[in-house]
Amino acid sequence: MESLYLLIPLSVVLILAIGGLLVWAAMSGQFDSLEQEGRRILDEHDAPPMGSAGPDDVPPASREP
C-alpha cells in the first residue's frame, strides 16, 4: 500500500510531462505538412546525394580491368 504513495504521484508527473511535450510539439509546428513529407520521400530522384561516391563514379582511368 505504501508503494502507491510513490507510484501515483510519479504517474501523474509522467502524464503531465508527456502532455507538455505533445503540446510543445503541436505548437512548434512539428505536425504541419505531414502529407508533404511523405510525398517528398517518394518523389526524390534516384540520383545519389552529393558527396557520396558509388562504384560507377570512379573515373575510367583508375578502374581495374
Number of helices: 2
Reported for the largest beta sheet, the result is: none
What is the ordering of alpha helices and beta strands? Answer: HH
- State the end-to-end distance: 77 Å
How would you classify the helix and strand content by structural class?
A: mainly alpha
Large-scale geometry: elongated
If you average the pLDDT, what whole number results?
Answer: 79
Strand content: under 5%
As residue ranges, the low-confidence spans are none
Radius of gyration: 25 Å
- Fraction of residues in helices? 40-55%
Q: What is the number of E strands?
A: 0
What does the model show?
The chain is elongated, with a radius of gyration of 25 Å. It has two helices and no strands. The longest helix has 24 residues, at 4-27. The mean pLDDT is 79. The protein is mainly α. The chain has helices at 4-27, 34-43.
